Amino acid sequence: MTPRVTRSAHAVVLSDADSPHVVSAEQFDPAWWRSRDLVVGGARGRGDVVFVRAGAETWVLRHFYRGGGMAHVSPDRYVWLGLERTRMWREWRMLAELRHRGLPVPAPIGARVSRRGLLYRGDILTRLIEGTETLADFIQREPLPASEWRAVGKLLASFQRAGVRHDDINVRNVLRHPDGTLSLIDFDKARFASPGAWSRHNLARFRRSLDKLGRRHAALHFREADWSDLEAGYTERPAP
């Protein structure tokens, strides 16, 4: 991918110069797509996530919202520290790098940063990974085979070996295709980091997300043996 930056009065757009798609600042507004009857769905989560039809592809448009206590003060505005340090810029570039390394993540389409004085807000467009559902949704409906729990562990380990510290790792950020293929999404809080204790902390965070989901859904298809299978995959040495 070759980054392409375009600027308008109050917005900057980052996109792929090698892509046939020309991404404009207006395309980061859900209303632009709705006016053309191109919104084809949405997803649960914090903030606005809509699926839009772009030619033969489906894209995911996500607005960035704060979490935690700061959300009550400023739900979607962040302090300006420079373009390269904006959250949507960093996520676009991380996705581009991870795709280059062959890791299973969505293809980044574009990112928009809108600045007003010392504050900014923004959005990101990625290509939808067709035919998938979240691991959370799947195990609410049916059990996951032991081999696929091991595959989840391998997936998490592969990103950690690449130095990806995903501090919002949870059961809703793993996507499963019917053929068992797995992908990882939502890199808003991710960054590259040197090896350290964070890797086990991230794994523990993933476990907490499973336990939290289990408290909400008593019939969740998740047992201690499943976690053992996940850990077996996580600790398995990759093939040379």
Could you list some keywords that capture this structure?
alpha+beta, Transferase(Phosphotransferase), domain 1, 2 domains, 7 helices
SSE order and pairing:
Layout (H helix, E strand, L loop, with lengths): L2 E5 L3 E6 L13 H5 L4 E4 L6 E6 L2 E7 L6 H4 L4 E2 L7 H14 L7 E9 L2 E9 L5 E2 H7 L4 H16 L2 E3 L7 E3 L5 E3 L5 E3 L5 H19 L7 H12 L5
Antiparallel strand pairs: 1-2, 2-7, 3-4, 4-5, 5-8, 6-8, 7-8, 9-11, 10-13, 11-12
Per DSSP, what share of the residues sits in E-state strands of 2 or more residues?
A: 25-35%
The best one-word shape is globular
Low-pLDDT stretches are: none
Summarize model confidence as the mean pLDDT: 92
Q: What does the main sheet amount to?
A: 8 strands, antiparallel
Estimate percent helicity: 25-40%
Radius of gyration: 18 Å
The SS-based structural class is alpha+beta
Please give the domain count. 2
Order of helices and strands: EEHEEEHEHEEEHHEEEEHH
